């Protein structure tokens, strides 16, 4: 069994977080490919996700490259830790405010 993808993810994530001992990666293989499930300390969640999800997207891109090199499809699932702060809802504008912004 080739576990280079999980080793790569482990090294990458542990270098990003403040609590590397709390990093847990579960690797499962099925007909769809490889699924890596990531659990981290709740305080480190922001570092893994990044602004607007950019860090998570970059990690997924790197895993896709590692997967192609090893002839497998690799997917990443980041588990939201229990007790994590809920994501704030974006404030939405009313129709009138949106129309005023368009300067029509």
TrEMBL record:
One of its GO terms (biological process) is regulation of cell shape. Signal peptide: none annotated. SUPFAM superfamilies: Prokaryotic type KH domain (KH-domain type II). Residues 80-104 are annotated as: Disordered. GO terms for molecular function: RNA binding. GO terms for cellular component: cytoplasm. It comes from the Bacteria. It is found in: Cytoplasm. The keyword Chaperone applies. Keywords: Cell shape, Cell wall biogenesis/degradation, Chaperone, Cytoplasm, RNA-binding. Forms a complex with KhpB. A probable RNA chaperone. Forms a complex with KhpB which binds to cellular RNA and controls its expression. Plays a role in peptidoglycan (PG) homeostasis and cell length regulation. Belongs to the KhpA RNA-binding protein family. This is RNA-binding protein KhpA. It comes from Candidatus Taylorbacteria bacterium CG10_big_fil_rev_8_21_14_0_10_41_48.
């Amino acid at each position: 069994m080739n576990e280079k993808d999980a080793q790569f993810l482990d090294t990458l994530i542990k270098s990003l977080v403040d609590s590397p001992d709390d990093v847990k990666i579960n690797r499962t293989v099925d007909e769809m490919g490889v699924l890596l499930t990531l659990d981290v300390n709740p305080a480190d969640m922001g570092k893994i996700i990044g602004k607007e999800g950019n860090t998570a997207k970059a990690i997924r891109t790197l895993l896709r490259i590692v997967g192609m090199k090893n002839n497998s499809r690799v997917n990443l699932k980041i588990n939201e830790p229990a007790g994590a702060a809920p994501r704030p809802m974006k404030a939405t504008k009313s129709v009138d405010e949106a129309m005023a912004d368009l300067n029509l």
